[in-house]
């Protein structure tokens, strides 16, 4: 995707040294575009924990490069295992992180220490390239859903899409998941409009999704998190498309807190609720998402304070609750499969169910 006309991925190896890793500092967006140079595995872990880098597919890719950085210092078996475990623990909910680390370990364990560094960078690069291809394919399959909506409307009539959190190119290596079909529909000339949930408490919708869509020229409107049901009741939402951090083998979906409420409202108003994901987000070892997906609990300060830009351009954080109050901050919730219309994957569309997933990924049935 592009920023000010220049094409970027969300993670890349620095061309000046061929070793360090560059990312956009997502905590600075949308008010400033800052790239970070990550030179150590500890810097990568810090970036993931503090959400300087976020988005399930992207943190997996960045963690893969983090392991490569660690091997540049010490390529021993002990270093490989220790740093892999450390990276895997940085955030608990998004399965892509664990998937990427397990894939790197499977590739690197049989490799001699003297050859591991080269192999690690090569494998991390393949993970990134595959993510881009998967997300582009998700976009093509999701585009069909928007084209079907357009057929039911008058020529040029607006297609209203609601999304929650940020599942665009800044959350992946490129293209995004939930936003990929929207970009493709816009580029194909369809009159798309996106309702962008602000997505408290970190405002990834208001900050990141709105910034992405504005950069691409896609019409959109930021709304408060609790407004989605109202717009559905009044026929102003044609489809909901969200991303996800983990999908179970039977189709339960973990996504940013508040997604479950959107799915309930969509069900009540007969609005299709679709979830876009690469297969790397499927956790084939878990069936019951509500029971078994670990939900990250983040700092109460994310709820009790907000950060924004003042009229004179300063970035400030201010308290929005009385001093000394307690705040709970679960970062994700789980939407049961019964509320999900279907899943958009790189292999096509399917029902949010074990049978639906196995119809596209039959090789998993044999494992």
TrEMBL record:
EC number: 5.3.1.23
Keywords from the UniProt entry: Amino-acid biosynthesis, Isomerase, Methionine biosynthesis
Record-annotated site: Transition state stabilizer: 165
GO biological process: one example: L-methionine salvage from methylthioadenosine
Substrates-to-products reaction catalysed: 5-(methylsulfanyl)-alpha-D-ribose 1-phosphate = 5-(methylsulfanyl)-D-ribulose 1-phosphate; 5-deoxy-alpha-D-ribose 1-phosphate = 5-deoxy-D-ribulose 1-phosphate
Superkingdom of the source species: Bacteria
Residues annotated for substrate binding in this entry: 54-56, 91, 204, 255-256
One Pfam family this sequence matches: IF-2B
GO molecular function: S-methyl-5-thioribose-1-phosphate isomerase activity
Coiled-coil segments on the chain, per record: none
Enzyme type, top EC level: isomerase
Pathway, per record: Amino-acid biosynthesis; L-methionine biosynthesis via salvage pathway; L-methionine from S-methyl-5-thio-alpha-D-ribose 1-phosphate: step 1/6
Function: Catalyzes the interconversion of methylthioribose-1-phosphate (MTR-1-P) into methylthioribulose-1-phosphate (MTRu-1-P). Also catalyzes the interconversion of 5-deoxyribose 1-phosphate and 5-deoxyribulose 1-phosphate. Part of a bifunctional DHAP-shunt salvage pathway for SAM by-products.
Entry-linked NCBIfam families: eIF-2B_rel, PRK05720.1, salvage_mtnA
Family: Belongs to the EIF-2B alpha/beta/delta subunits family. MtnA subfamily.
Full protein name: Methylthioribose-1-phosphate isomerase
Upper taxonomic lineage: Bacteria, Pseudomonadati, Pseudomonadota, Alphaproteobacteria, Acetobacterales
């Amino acid at each position: 995707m592009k920023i000010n006309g220049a094409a970027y991925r969300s993670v890349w190896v620095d061309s000046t040294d061929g070793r360090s890793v560059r990312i956009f500092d997502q905590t600075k967006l949308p008010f400033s575009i800052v790239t970070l140079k990550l030179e150590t595995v500890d810097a990568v872990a810090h970036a993931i924990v503090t959400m300087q880098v976020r988005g399930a597919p992207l943190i997996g890719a960045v963690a893969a490069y983090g392991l490569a950085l660690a091997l540049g210092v010490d390529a021993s078996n002990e270093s490989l295992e220790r740093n892999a475990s450390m990276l895997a623990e940085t955030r608990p909910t998004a399965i892509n992180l664990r998937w990427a680390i397990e894939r790197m370990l499977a590739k690197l364990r049989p490799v001699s220490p003297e050859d591991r560094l080269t192999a690690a960078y090569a494998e991390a690069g393949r993970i990134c390239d595959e993510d881009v291809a998967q997300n582009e394919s998700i976009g093509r399959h999701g585009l069909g859903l928007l084209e079907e909506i357009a057929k039911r409307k008058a020529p040029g009539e607006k297609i209203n899409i609601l999304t929650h959190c940020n599942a665009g190119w800044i959350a992946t290596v490129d293209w995004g998941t939930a936003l990929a079909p929207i970009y493709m529909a816009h580029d194909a000339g369809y009159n798309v409009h996106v309702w962008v949930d602000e997505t408290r408490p970190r405002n990834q919708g208001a900050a990141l999704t709105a910034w992405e869509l504005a950069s691409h020229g896609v019409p959109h409107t930021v709304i408060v998190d609790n407004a989605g049901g109202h717009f559905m009741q009044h026929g102003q939402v044609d489809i909901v498309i969200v991303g996800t951090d983990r999908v179970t083998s039977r189709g339960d979906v973990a996504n940013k807190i508040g997604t479950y409420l959107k799915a309930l409202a969509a069900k009540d108003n007969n609005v299709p609720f679709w979830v876009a994901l690469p297969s790397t987000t499927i956790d084939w070892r878990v069936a019951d998402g509500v029971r078994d997906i670990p939900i990250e609990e983040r700092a109460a300060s994310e709820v009790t304070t907000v950060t924004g830009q003042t009229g004179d351009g300063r970035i400030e954080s201010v308290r929005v609750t009385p001093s000394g109050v307690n705040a709970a901050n679960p970062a994700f919730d789980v939407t049961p499969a019964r509320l999900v219309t279907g899943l958009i994957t790189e292999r096509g569309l399917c029902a949010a169910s074990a049978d639906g997933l196995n119809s596209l990924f039959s090789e998993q049935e044999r494992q």
